[in-house]
Design goal:
This protein is 36% helix and 20% strand. The protein has 64 residues and is α+β, with helices and mostly antiparallel strands. The protein has a three-stranded mixed beta sheet with strand order 1-2-3. α2 links the parallel β1 and β2.
């Protein structure tokens, strides 16, 4: 594996949690976003290198 290259498992995780448009490649920042999205139950959309939108499925219920 070269520096910065994602493993097949990491690539699969990114594919599951980050929408990447054609022409943009997956990178380590995408992997961080995918791990964050998995932990909180959301998704991200990569708009440009280093720029992401949060995809909200439904509003969260407020505690209390």
């Amino acid at each position: 594996m070269s520096d910065g290259a994602l493993t097949p498992q990491e690539t699969a995780l990114v594919r599951d949690y980050v929408d990447i448009p054609p022409g943009l490649a997956a990178d380590r920042a995408d992997l961080q976003r995918a791990r964050l999205a998995r932990s909180v139950g959301g998704r991200f959309r990569k708009v440009a290198p280093g720029l992401y939108e949060i995809i909200v499925q439904a509003p969260r219920e407020r505690a209390g």
